[in-house]
Design goal:
The protein is an all-alpha fold and 72 residues long. The protein has helices at 3-22, 34-51, 55-62. It has one domain.
Length: 72
Amino acid sequence: MSIDRIVFAVAGAFILLSVALGMSMSPIFHHEYWLFFTAFVGLNLFQSAFTGFCPMVLILKAIGAKPGHAFS
């Protein structure tokens, strides 16, 4: 799996989990403040679309993940 796909998969999983933890109707509800984490992940994805910088990419490159097209 390339770095691009790993970043998108992890971001999607973080968003789904933090929404489930932050919505009061969810069976795994914890607290509304989890929605701030959802916003953080979304803003990070938004800025990386313009700058090409994502902190997770640095980690994935360091462990030797296969490069993709978006984060080179």
